[in-house]
Amino acid sequence: VLFFTAMDERLGGQEAARYFLREFGLTESYDSPQATGGDIGADGESNNTIANPIDEAYLHALFISPLGEKNSAYQQRFEGYRDMLLGATNITDTPINVEWLELDASSTASMEDGLKGRLSGCKYQSVLVGSAKLSPAVIDVIEENGCHARDVPTKVGSFDTSKEIFDRISERRMEFAIDQ
User: What per-residue string of b and e applies to 7-35 under the rule 16 or more CB within 10 Å gives b?
Assistant: First the structure.
């Protein structure tokens, strides 16, 4: 379980991406012009190296935010997540496709309707939810579709915390939450 407190929204998105990358065969550090952090050696070169190539199964990632909410935090979270994942693909021939979905959060039914088509077929290996209020519906639809029970299960992380989020993490239905 990753409990990372993010005061910087972009950094929070990067930490989420790092978690998913480790889950799919990368160590915390890798060579990436878009990724931040890491060590610089005495020769001025980056000491960030990849331990293993990205598992071929990690091809699709999704970020979900509430529809119509004018909050720059969602954009920054997405950018951190996307840039870290895209940066990791600079060392492979298989890029990770990172998509954004805005979800109508006015009711559970509207959230589930918006998710069913998008999550059918279990295309995504990682889903980062920008707001805890969306997480229960996301997890329910992933489980309904059987995406959690495949050889390469869909892994879900969320920004913000709640009792419901902590319950899902303890039940191993969700990977982590990033506290705000």
Answer: eebbbbbbbbbbbbbebbebeebbbbeeb
